[in-house]
Design goal:
The protein is an all-beta fold. The protein is built from 1 helix and 25 strands. Strand 12 and strand 13 form a beta hairpin. It is globular. Monomer.
Amino acid sequence: MIHLKNNNSNVSIDEGELVSYIVDGEQYIHQKGNKGWRKSDDEMFPVIGPTIKNDFIVHTKHGDAVQDQHGLLRELSYTLVSENENQVKFQKKYTKNTWVKNSKFPSKSTEEFLFWTFDFIFEKKITLLKDTLIVDFMIQSEEGMPFMLGYHPAFLLSDTGEETLISKQQKITLKDVLNAGANAFPVLESDEILLINYDKKNLQINTKGFHNFMLWTEVNNMICIEPITQYTSFTNQQFSEENMQLSKGKNYFSVEIRVLE
């Protein structure tokens, strides 16, 4: 476990997973073990969404790859690159066509192994400033590699169902998110969203490089506010590089989580 501290703020990271963000004694991150979700944060790469309708196949110029829901990145382990009092950096490396054991098999998937047809390096950097937490991502690969990226943090709520969200003057209730179900509630063409908490200070989330969010929960005590490069639940998503972002070689994304006064 790695701990960051800055004045009145504290962060805990467990093998690259953000498991705690406390400001002025208030916890803002969903706690593992509570109802709702078994994690506190995660990343979705190189695809977002379920691939079962595509027979778990993603078509690329280097051939077909096998990917399960939200990609294979989450099956890889982070390596610690650097750390100091206010910042920590992790990295995952993948060699093309390497088989990765699928943790969803056999209970939730028919695919025992996953693979991707490109090399990549994926970096996650967490920086704690005063009342602000910044999560930066860098993806390095050959130019033209197709990909989607989603960040999947879960925020602790009051369990009253009274929290709301605002983006581009649209008010979204927790009931709206619950009703969206497994598809998640889309907030498109937006780089910022406000979480209005019931029992503590509000959170302002600003992003760079994603341009969309989706919101997901099945309970009243947490919500996942997920910056995404693409929302894939409108149609029967056909996964291929024709509808994915193409790498520039190095690709940068950022999420800023700020506790408002």
